[in-house]
Amino acid sequence: MLTKHSSCVVKPQPPERQDATPNMNNTDKEIELLKKEIKRLGEKSADGQPGIAIVKFGKLVRDDKASNIFEALNGTLRSAKRKGVIHFEGQMLLQGAHDDVDIVLLQDE
């Protein structure tokens, strides 16, 4: 029991997040998942072509597993492009209009 003369007060600590991974935020986690999905759905780059794997946007966006993983696929694609992990033509891809656009996986690390 604490009295007004007690000098030791223990403050409750916030619970640690179970899903917290050091040095990896949600965007980085989504990019890691994106890399796996591109490799799963795509084809290996041919000799002389840049990248590790290539997948059409339409194939990625219509895949059941991928659509269940990504809440905001376009946001993940844009973040991955900004970090140099993938490449695609244009700024944003829209289902239907850009189904034939190649998404090229440039980094696998």
TrEMBL record:
The processes (GO biological process) annotated in the record are:
regulation of actin filament-based process
Q: Where is the Costars domain?
A: 25-106
Q: Where is this region: Disordered?
A: 1-26
InterPro entries attached to this UniProt entry: Costars (IPR044302), Costars_dom (IPR027817), Costars_sf (IPR038095)
UniProt xrefs under SMART domains: Costars
Q: Which domain of life is it from?
A: Eukaryota
Question: Which PANTHER family has this protein been placed in?
Answer: COSTARS FAMILY PROTEIN ABRACL (PTHR46334:SF1)
The entry's family comment says:
Belongs to the costars family.
Q: What is this protein called?
A: Costars domain-containing protein
